[in-house]
Design goal:
Elements: H1 3-14, H2 23-47, H3 51-75, H4 81-114, H5 125-144, H6 146-160, H7 173-176, H8 179-195, H9 206-226, H10 234-269, H11 273-306
Helix pairs in contact: 2-3, 2-6, 3-4, 3-9, 4-5, 4-6, 4-10, 8-9, 9-10, 10-11
Length: 311
């Protein structure tokens, strides 16, 4: 067994998520895990809202969002709704800073040499860095404001007072069901919703593609969240590999769209011919990259649809 497989197997064995847990027990464990992660991520971001703290904060918020959505589905309770709205508000605010981070650290850095002799991509450095700094300045007041505190208090209250239960803490039949069984059904439901989108996703309109990207991202996040419940079966691993390959390509297309929005903003504010030429050059390169990604998309989609379901 490879070192990577050994590490994954060890992580699965160390996870508190086990097949004998009820839905109620698993919800309590998942919320406590997310609470520890979000407290650490928010504390680091408050100390220094910079790229090295914004990305972990974004990841922690996404994991919390996935957990709350899953808890809502499995419990049938509305106890998580307010928290979920607050998390989504924070994700949207942090997203803008994260996109500027990627544009500066990845897009510009990777195109300086690739487009040398075609355009002076380095000319975009100063306006992109200024926009990046401004995006981080906008995040700081939000993190200092009441929303993160409300989120932390709400999460702490849920962990200590499980409001998803019935009157006087009664455990319903739904909450008393096996978490592994209910999670498997939820994964099957999400999988069916994806497959109902058709056989050729390249033909979908851009809006439909973006909706599909959201569905794939959510299913992939749920699979990562509950992976310890299936530590060994090869069929589970193969299904997840096909799903993640599809997710990676759709994610790349989405990030390319977001990068182009950032470049368009720079072009609107910087009329310099050098800047305009650099934006146009990266845009042309991105078209080629998008074409390459799209050419792989239908193949990845067919492989995902053909993969044997582990349930």
């Amino acid at each position: 067994m490879s070192d990577r497989k050994n590490a994954r197997h060890a992580a699965a064995l160390a996870s508190p998520l086990t097949s004998h847990l009820t839905v109620d027990e698993a919800i309590a464990i998942l919320l406590a895990q997310r609470q520890a992660e979000i407290v650490a991520a928010l504390r680091a971001a408050l100390d220094r809202p910079m790229p090295e703290t914004i990305q972990p904060l974004h990841a922690a918020l996404q994991a919390l969002s996935t957990t709350l959505a899953l808890c809502t589905r499995l419990s049938g309770a509305g106890a998580f709704d307010d928290l979920l709205r607050d998390v989504q508000t924070l994700i949207e605010a942090v997203d803008d800073a994260r996109r500027w981070d990627r544009l500066v650290a990845e897009t510009l850095a990777s195109h300086i040499d690739a487009l040398a002799g075609v355009a002076d991509v380095a000319a975009l450095g100063d306006p992109a860095a200024a926009a990046r700094l401004e995006s981080h300045r906008r995040v700081r007041p939000l993190l200092d404001g009441p929303l993160p505190q409300r989120l932390l208090l709400g999460l702490a209250f849920l962990v200590s007072q499980p409001r998803w239960r019935g009157d006087e803490g009664a455990i319903s039949k739904r909450l008393g069901a096996k978490f592994r069984v209910r999670t498997r059904r939820e994964i099957a439901r999400l999988d069916k919703r994806l497959q109902d989108r058709g056989k050729a996703i390249r033909r979908l309109a851009e809006e439909a593609q973006q909706e599909m990207h959201g569905d794939v991202r959510h299913l992939a996040a749920v699979m990562d969240l509950v992976g310890p419940l299936w530590p060994r079966p090869p069929r589970f691993r193969r299904y997840r590999q096909h799903l993640h390959a599809l997710h990676s390509t759709l994610d790349g297309l989405h990030e390319a769209r977001m990068t182009q929005y950032g470049l368009d903003r720079i072009a609107e504010e910087e009329p310099s011919p050098v800047v305009q030429r650099a934006v146009g050059a990266i845009g042309g390169w991105s078209v080629r990259d998008r074409t390459n990604r799209l050419s792989k998309l239908d193949k990845l989609w067919r492989e995902y649809r053909a993969a044997k379901r582990f349930w």
